[in-house]
């Protein structure tokens, strides 16, 4: 007698539906984030249960480090994706898989520690109005990151104006300008400054109510209130905040009704002397599809640029970050290599360092230049500008004021030999060319000559401050 197949239960059908939705969401995130980020942070996510009463879906990761990382960087994106996929999901909770807590955790200094002085930043009573249940506006799930403070923000020429302006907005004194609009490319520190403002403002005004969200989050809450005929409550709650922090404002473009509500909110808060800070990847005038009245409000205060970090700032950021991993030793040549090579944004720079250290700790290997080159291939490839040996020779000749032909000549005068050796050294550092290939570009010299030049300049940089200064200056010129 044939065995009949058992019909799946309601819970099993629900689980299969969630898995199917997650497959679609994961595929979309892979396209948005790229294969490397997706494989490292999104793919390990496991689905938990869905609480029908609260509409909360649990997402599990294997360690505290990975759970905190995903929550910090992808919580809003994951929440929005699930809300679009399923109407019964209102919140997403990212946490460590309860069955995997026994796994050895990465020891990353203070990266994941929430000290008592910072815990209040995540208290929903500090960032939400006490009344009203519209959506999740201002709930603790979109709270402030305790690690992103002014103390942990490294300043340089590229961001000092924005940092000083942000500190003024968080001070007890009334700022001379409002709103503050932070403009900078992805990963340059805008979000860090928003969180830092929130922390300092709460420290100075313990009873204050603040609202931090991304523009996408604002849109989700707005649409939910609109669908539930609760716009009056939505407006009342939004305008009850003392400090409004909105990230990635460029994503609100084209949403006429939401733009109008944000415009009225800005006017109401400014009239009451409240503080507003916005962040975007472009200037207000470059936002397409924005209503002129909203555009004028966004640019009426101070627009503070955050430029791309130069090599000195990148180096300082890495050195500051390393203090969190003490007593772990990271050689100076690795820091120099990362600072020179990962130039697109600070988030990738710090992420590269985190990945390298995590890999070294998990495998028991020592951090080295070779390990960095092997494990950060994708990040390094994406950041490398294709600098040619011809470009290096031309720049070195201009710097030392020697004729270009001297790069290939047989002259051995010191005024010619030293620039030639510097050019060989830079060719090895900045290009993927082998020693023989470099030798051929310098008048057909033997590979041993190139090796000697590279080692000599490396040694001189350690002993001679003038030589080190020359090389640093040339590196800045070539990498700019």
TrEMBL record:
N-terminal signal peptide: none
GO MF term set: ATP binding; DNA replication origin binding; lipid binding
Function: Plays an essential role in the initiation and regulation of chromosomal replication. ATP-DnaA binds to the origin of replication (oriC) to initiate formation of the DNA replication initiation complex once per cell cycle. Binds the DnaA box (a 9 base pair repeat at the origin) and separates the double-stranded (ds)DNA. Forms a right-handed helical filament on oriC DNA; dsDNA binds to the exterior of the filament while single-stranded (ss)DNA is stabiized in the filament's interior.
Keywords: ATP-binding, Cytoplasm, DNA replication, DNA-binding, Lipid-binding, Nucleotide-binding
Entries under PROSITE patterns matching the protein: DNAA (PS01008)
A Gene Ontology term for the protein's cellular component: cytoplasm
InterPro entries in UniProt: AAA+_ATPase, Chromosome_initiator_DnaA, Chromosome_initiator_DnaA-like, Chromosome_initiator_DnaA_CS, DnaA_C, DnaA_dom, DnaA_N_dom, DnaA_N_sf
Chain intervals for the UniProt region annotation (Domain I, interacts with DnaA modulators): 1-111
Family recorded in the similarity comment: Belongs to the DnaA family.
SMART domains cross-referenced by the UniProt entry: AAA, Bac_DnaA_C
GO biological process: DNA replication initiation; regulation of DNA replication
Segments for region (Domain IV, binds dsDNA): 361-480
Domain notes: Domain I is involved in oligomerization and binding regulators, domain II is flexibile and of varying length in different bacteria, domain III forms the AAA+ region, while domain IV binds dsDNA.
Pfam families assigned: Bac_DnaA (PF00308), Bac_DnaA_C (PF08299), DnaA_N (PF11638)
Subcellular location: Cytoplasm
Keyword Cytoplasm: yes
Recorded name of the encoding gene: dnaA
Span of domain Chromosomal replication initiator DnaA C-terminal: 388-457
Residues given in the record as ATP binding sites: 187, 189-191
Organism: Alteriqipengyuania halimionae
Assembly mode: Oligomerizes as a right-handed, spiral filament on DNA at oriC.
Protein name listed in UniProt: Chromosomal replication initiator protein DnaA
Span of domain AAA+ ATPase: 176-304
């Amino acid at each position: 007698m044939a065995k009949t197949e058992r019909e799946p239960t309601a819970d099993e059908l629900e689980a299969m539906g969630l898995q199917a939705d997650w497959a679609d969401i994961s595929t979309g995130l892979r396209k948005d984030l790229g294969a490397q980020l997706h494989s490292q942070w999104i793919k390990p996510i496991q689905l938990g249960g869905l609480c029908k009463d609260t509409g909360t879906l649990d997402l599990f990761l294997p360690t505290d480090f990975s759970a905190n990382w995903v929550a910090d960087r992808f919580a809003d994106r994951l929440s929005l994706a699930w809300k679009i996929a399923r109407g019964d999901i209102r919140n997403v909770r990212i946490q460590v898989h309860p069955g995997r807590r026994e796994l050895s955790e990465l020891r990353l200094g203070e990266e994941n520690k929430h000290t008592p002085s910072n815990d209040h930043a995540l208290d929903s009573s500090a960032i939400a109005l006490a009344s009203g249940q519209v959506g999740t506006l201002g709930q603790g799930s979109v709270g402030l990151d305790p690690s992103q403070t002014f103390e942990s923000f490294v300043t340089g020429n590229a961001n000092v104006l924005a940092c000083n302006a942000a500190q003024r907005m968080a001070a007890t004194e009334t700022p001379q300008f409002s709103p503050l609009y932070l403009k900078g490319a992805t990963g340059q520190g805008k979000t860090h400054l928003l969180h830092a403002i929130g922390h300092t403002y709460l420290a100075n005004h313990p009873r204050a109510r603040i609202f931090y969200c991304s523009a996408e989050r604002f849109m989700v809450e707005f649409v939910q209130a609109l669908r539930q005929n609760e716009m009056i409550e939505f407006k009342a709650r939004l305008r009850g905040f003392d400090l409004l922090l909105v990230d990635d404002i460029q994503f609100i473009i084209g949403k006429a009704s939401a733009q109008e509500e944000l415009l009225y909110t800005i006017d109401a808060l400014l009239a009451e002397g409240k503080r507003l800070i916005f962040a975007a990847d472009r200037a207000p005038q470059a936002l397409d599809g924005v209503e002129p009245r909203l555009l004028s409000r966004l640019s009426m205060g101070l627009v503070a640029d955050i430029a791309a970090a130069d090599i000195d700032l990148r180096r300082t950021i890495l050195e500051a970050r390393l203090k969190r991993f003490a007593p772990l030793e990271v050689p100076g040549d690795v820091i120099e290599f990362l600072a020179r090579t990962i130039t697109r944004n600070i988030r990738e720079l710090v992420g590269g360092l985190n990945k390298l250290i995590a890999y070294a700790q998990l495998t028991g290997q020592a951090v080295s230049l070779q390990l960095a080159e092997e494990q950060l291939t994708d990040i390094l490839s994406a950041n490398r500008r294709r600098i040619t040996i011809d470009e290096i020779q031309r720049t070195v000749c201009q710097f030392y004021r020697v004729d270009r032909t001297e790069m290939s000549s047989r002259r051995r005068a010191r005024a010619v030999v030293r620039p030639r050796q510097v050019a060989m050294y830079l060719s090895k550092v900045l290009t993927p060319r082998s020693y023989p290939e470099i030798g051929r570009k310098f008048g057909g010299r033997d590979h041993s000559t190139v090796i000697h030049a590279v080692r000599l300049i490396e040694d001189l940089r350690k002993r001679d401050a003038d030589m080190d200064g020359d090389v640093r200056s040339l590196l800045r010129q070539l990498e700019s």
